[in-house]
Amino acid sequence: SQTIHQWPATLVQPVGSPLSLECTVEGTSNPNLYWYRQAAGRGLQLLFYSVGIGQISSEVPQNLSASRPQDRQFILSSKKLLLSDSGFYLCAWSVRDTSTDTQYFGPGTRLTVL
Amino acid sequence: EDQVTQSPEALRLQEGESSSLNCSYTVSGLRGLFWYRQDPGKGPEFLFTLYSAGEEKEKERLKATLTKKESFLHITAPKPEDSATYLCAVGGTSYGKLTFGQGTILTVHP
């Protein structure tokens, strides 16, 4: 069966510090991968998605970036965090090249920027 | 632009009191409508995918239905463990991208 991991689970960082969040998927090959941010425990905002290694699409202009160095690894980064970057970050995967877009989510990372 | 609106924002029920959550949507070319359950501090858990008007799916006390403009999540005889935020999302013509609603916070009192 497929499993998706995210770490760390929680993170407290000062303003201006760098960020690196990691997501890995097990049990599937060539997945589509996604990064979302969820503010105030409600709606999800798509930040980045990737259909393959090195292929990243950005949905929202911001000081965050994403990379996909391996097929089942997705990384969210920032050089300098802002207060507004606080939130719950979710990674998701879906099967590529099918008629369904069902996405499966990881456990999330709670980021607090002070 | 795809849009999803969920109502009500919050719903309080007594155990055993059946009710429905609404998800209204506008989308260019529906590829799928998705329901998720999210517990506090956790990632969304997939419940259902519906593809065409008239389709229905069931899982335990939950039943999801779909029309051309909205979807309902019916909860029959809910239990306190059904308390969670329920999220609705649609997939449109942009392959792989989902648009989410703001969710309905369901609280079931014993």
Architecture overview:
The complex is a heterodimer of chains A (114) and B (110). In chain A, 0% of the residues lie in helices and 57% in strands. Chain A contains no helices and 11 strands. In chain A, β5 and β6 form a beta hairpin. Chain A starts with a strand and ends with a strand. In chain B, the strands form 2 sheets. In chain B, strands 2, 4, 5, 9, 10 and 11 form a 6-stranded mixed beta sheet that branches.
Strand content of chain B: over 45%
Rg of Cα set of chain A: 13 Å
Element order of chain B: H for helix, E for strand: EEEEEEEEEEE
- The sequence of SSEs of chain A as H and E is EEEEEEEEEEE
Q: Give helix % range of chain A.
A: under 10%
Shape of chain B: globular
Query: Main sheet of chain B, how many strands, which sense, barrel?
Result: 6 strands, mixed
Uncertain stretches of 5 or more adjacent residues of chain A = none
CA(first)-CA(last) distance of chain A? 38 Å
Structural class of chain A: mainly beta
Q: N-to-C terminal Cα separation of chain B, in Å?
A: 41 Å
Spatial shape of chain A? globular
Number of helices of chain A: 0
Give unreliable regions of chain B as ranges: none
Derived from helix and strand composition plus strand pairing, the structural class of chain B reads mainly beta
Q: Characterize the main sheet of chain A.
A: 7 strands, mixed
Number of E-state strands of chain A: 11
Number of helices of chain B: 0
Please report the two chains with the greatest interface, counting residues with C-beta closer than 8 angstroms to the partner's C-beta: A-B, 24 and 25 residues
- Radius of gyration of chain B equals 13 Å
Mean pLDDT of chain A: 92
